[in-house]
Design a protein that fits this description.
Layout (H helix, E strand, L loop, with lengths): L1 E5 L8 E5 L2 E6 L7 H12 L2 H14 L3 H25 L6 H8 L2 H34 L11 H20 L2 H26 L17 H9 L6 H7 L7 H30 L2 H10 L5 H10 L1 H35 L18 H18 L5 H30 L14 H14 L4 H22 L5 H16 L2
Parallel strand pairs: 1-3
Antiparallel strand pairs: 2-3
Length: 486
């Protein structure tokens, strides 16, 4: 008889050993990622389609004040990043934020946190895939994307195909995914550096005189939508178990990712606000092509070469971000499966490649389903951006709570890094989550609440095997007491 035990270890070896008369096969994730690869995962997820799509979308609504939207989002994302560093160095396991909530509270809180983190990554995957498809459509008709032979069905098909491509890459293991991430991220950064270097000379300072033409309400709405643009730092934490020396590598990779994103996002918004004319901005809004404004700026700044360089860079950026979030979503599912919160196949690793291939398949096909759902909306890409931003904000709210709970319940836990100004930073972060989540439109809330309600009932009925309402209430009361009582 052979029993397969899935656990974690630092040696990255698959071995079979006799134990109690049985042959026990131990399979665990391999530590193959160094600082460069870990940073590329974060930068790849952060500087993705968001910088090309959301910058134009928010600029069209808020004018030059779009810069404030990204800065506000960046400040609150920094709070999340700092809290993440403390928790990820104390609990360096695959699964990221799910593990922190599971460690602090467990029960229904851990399960729903894992489910929402997974939803956030999967909706981000749909967002990036649809962004890639829109860029591909623009490539087929550069002068007028509406004249492209690709209609709505064609865009959806391209999104599905690119998801399947990166699903296949991830199935070949973390090293294959990391190599793809390194290559796509380096190319993406190369194109952005060229674009920024040339376009900075064309910025018109007078364009910033009418800084907030629509007031500051669009700025706040833009800040609520753009959180997905900064979420890449947390994808690094999901791969902690596959890093060399995660207690050192992880915080360094998070900081490098965050600094890169802040600088590049700010420069891109300044360039767009300082180059594009008010008339062109209005035309883009009327035509519904504001998400493609950055390519018009590239054409103005560098000509046809600049347009194609940035368009290819945008497609590569969407690919690198898609690759990173497929990687992250599968690791969340794997971590949940290892805690026996999901069916057995989810926690099964490939005996040779040591990757959670079932989790990769489920996450990828779920992203395809979300693409199909989003394609029925008039604001296809915006809906996925709002859903991902909402899910990530709520997830980070749970992470803030977990940090406070673990400080109170487990003060002796080894923490290589401790956040400053405790408990004010997580409290402020939690308040920002509540504020910005309330701004997200109803459509995104409906999808999230549907998944949340389904998840709670799945946990109670399937995981906890509750067969009566009284038993369900008893389980929920127990889980609430666990988080409140020291």
């Amino acid at each position: 008889m052979e029993t397969v035990i899935v656990n974690s270890s630092s040696d990255g070896v698959v071995s079979s050993v006799p134990r109690g008369g049985e042959v026990v096969t131990e399979v665990h994730l391999k530590r193959e990622l160094g600082l460069f690869s870990a940073t590329m995962i974060g930068v790849g997820a952060t500087i993705g389609a968001g910088i090309f799509v959301l910058s134009g979308t928010i600029l069209a609504r808020a004018g030059p004040a779009a810069l404030l939207a990204f800065i506000i989002t960046g400040i609150f994302a920094l709070l999340s990043a700092i809290c993440y560093i403390e928790l990820s160095t104390a609990i360096p396991k695959a699964g990221g934020g799910f593990n922190y909530v599971q460690e602090s509270a467990g029960g229904v809180f851990g399960f729903t946190a894992g489910l929402l983190f997974w939803l956030a990554y999967v909706s981000a995957a749909a967002f990036y895939a649809l962004g890639f498809a829109e860029f591909f459509k623009l490539a087929t008709s550069p002068d007028d994307p509406e004249e492209s032979f690709l209609g709505a069905a064609g865009v959806l098909l391209i999104a599905i195909l690119i998801i399947l491509l990166f699903m296949t890459i991830n199935i070949f293991g973390a090293k294959s995914a990391a190599r793809a991430e390194n290559a796509t991220t380096i190319f993406k950064l190369f194109t952005l550096v060229i674009f920024i270097s040339v376009a900075l000379t064309l910025v018109n300072p007078r364009a910033f005189e009418n800084f907030a033409p629509q007031g500051f309400s669009p700025v706040i709405a833009g800040a609520a939508m753009s959180f997905i643009a900064f979420e890449g730092f947390d994808t690094i934490a999901t791969a902690a178990e596959e890093m060399h020396e995660p207690e050192k590598t992880l915080p360094r990779a998070v900081i490098l990712t965050f600094v890169s994103a802040i600088i590049i996002y700010s420069l891109i918004v300044i360039l767009m606000a300082g180059i594009i004319s008010t008339e062109d901005l209005k035309d883009a809004v009327d035509e519904g092509t504001e998400e493609l404004l950055v390519f018009d700026v590239a054409r103005t700044a560098i000509g046809g070469f600049g347009f194609w360089l940035l368009l290819v860079g945008g497609m590569v950026a969407a690919c690198s971000a898609l690759n990173a979030v497929i990687f992250a979503s599968s690791r969340v599912m794997y971590a949940m499966g290892r805690e026996k919160l999901l069916p057995l196949p989810i926690r099964r690793l490939h005996p040779r490649l040591a990757i959670p291939y079932y989790a990769i398949l489920v996450s990828s096909f779920s992203a395809i389903v979300l693409c199909i759902i989003a394609s029925t909306s008039e604001q296809v890409i915006e809906l996925m951006a709002e859903l991902a931003s909402l899910a990530f904000r709520i997830c980070f709210g749970l992470v803030f709570i977990s940090l406070i709970v673990l400080r109170r319940k487990r003060p002796d836990m080894k923490r290589p890094f401790k956040i400053p100004f405790y408990p004010w930073l997580p409290i402020i972060g939690l308040a920002s989550v509540i504020f910005f989540a309330g701004i997200i439109p109803l459509d995104a809330w409906l999808i999230l609440l549907t998944v949340f309600v389904f998840g709670v009932f799945y946990y109670l009925i399937v995981v906890m095997k509750a067969r009566s309402l009284s038993r369900m209430i008893e389980i929920l009361k127990r889980d609430f007491r666990r988080i409140l009582i020291k």
